[in-house]
Amino acid sequence: MGIDFGVCIQNMKKKLILNDQLHGFDKEQNELIQIIKKTTDFGESDSMIILGPRGCGKSILLESVIKSLSPESHTLVLLNGLIHTDDNLALKSIIQQLQMENLDGTFAEGSYADNISFLLESFRAGNKTASKSIIMVLDRFDMFCSHTNQTLLYNLFDSVQSQQSPLCIIGLTSRIDVIELLEKRVKSRFSHNIMMLNPPSEISQLLERFKHSLIINKHCKVKADVLKNWNNNIELLISDVRIQNLMKDLLKSSNNSTKLNLLIFHALSNMSNDLILTVENLTNNYTTLFKKDMILVHLLGLSVLELCLMISICHHSEIYDQEPFNFEMIYDRYCKFALRNSTLLVTKRQVIIKAFERISVMQLILPVAVIENKNVLREYRLYKCSINLDKVKTASNLYFRLPPVILQWIDSNII
Ligand SMILES: Nc1ncnc2c1ncn2[C@@H]1O[C@H](COP(=O)(O)OP(=O)(O)OP(=O)(O)O)[C@@H](O)[C@H]1O
């Protein structure tokens, strides 16, 4: 029975990783099923846009609906604005996913005009009853709107409107102004079915999601008393004020669903041998996962050369009372140190310029007077340091195998 309980925990973790567990959105799920079934069962073409902030569950909702359909009832075509960056790429992918290139070997290789007329001809040749339905998902729908003349969108929506082969187009986007992005002729062909998805906005909703992910149901082959203890413990956790505060904190972050899943996954992975989920476990994991000192994380991600430049910058700022500096000043300070220590290679100037620029991109140093800086050679642009020497010292002490001369240099009398 102990093994069964372990398997149960593993299954919980698997569901969290595979995004296999839609919670809530019952109304939206039903609405989406109705629209898709109109195409798969009755051959009626339609289009819809699912709109919601990043990570609110648009994909998981659509996946749950598609999973509930019988695979024979439709052909799925998946497009993503990040991958299919122009109409030509998108069209080739549609033809390949519909396995139409086999009809004429040259088509997927042919010009855009050939391909689109071939695709539209195929749609026209179909009919409501005999043709297999196509569900076409356009993830990052807003990116398709930036394609030249929106030709593909126009042709797809036109096919939907003229009810040729059964085709259901579902767009997923987080752009609230997506309709405004459509050209007039495309907009007029779109069905204006828009589904808004809202992520949890109240603590109770997040706690409900937490419970849903962790409660073990009765079908699980676990001893009755083990199951009862586990579920009672989850109820206790939910009523604990520390967990409620933690959820309050999670709610403030932009993508609370992904973070909640990650937190539960780590808490389950770090359970002690007695397999009990505790408040301490959850709060500790929460702190390590989401309460990191990001400046420290950035500093630990620097190369040794970049860290040395940061030390030079902090030394300079301490000596000159936070006065602005340029690359030449820091380069000079770094070279003096590097030449004193034969263990450190004096690197090429260009490499050091690149390292300095990376530090600037990471905003560990900030430009002063951006407008004036534009007309100045990059070596002479002025910057100010956004962190202090103590932070760099902490990072250096944690840095993996930092040469001791560098550690001594940080603490050496600044000259
Ligand atoms: N209602 C929900 N039930 C269960 N998990 C959810 C829910 N909503 C979001 N999630 C989780 O949040 C994460 C992001 O979900 P999903 O990929 O569906 O969001 P999305 O809106 O499609 O994001 P994007 O805009 O970045 O494409 C996934 O790990 C998913 O499991």
From TrEMBL:
GO terms for molecular function: ATP binding; ATP hydrolysis activity; DNA replication origin binding. InterPro entries: AAA+_ATPase (IPR003593), ATPase_AAA_core (IPR003959), ORC4 (IPR016527), ORC4_C (IPR032705), P-loop_NTPase (IPR027417). The keyword DNA-binding applies. It is found in: Nucleus. One of its GO terms (cellular component) is nuclear origin of replication recognition complex. Its main location: nucleus. Transmembrane segments: none annotated. SMART domains: AAA (SM00382). Residues 44-200 form the AAA+ ATPase domain. It holds the Pfam family ORC4_C. GO terms for biological process: DNA replication initiation. Keywords: DNA replication, DNA-binding, Nucleus. Component of the origin recognition complex (ORC) that binds origins of replication. Component of ORC, a complex composed of at least 6 subunits: ORC1, ORC2, ORC3, ORC4, ORC5 and ORC6. ORC is regulated in a cell-cycle dependent manner. It is sequentially assembled at the exit from anaphase of mitosis and disassembled as cells enter S phase. Interacts with DBF4. Interacts with POLQ. Belongs to the ORC4 family. This is Origin recognition complex subunit 4.
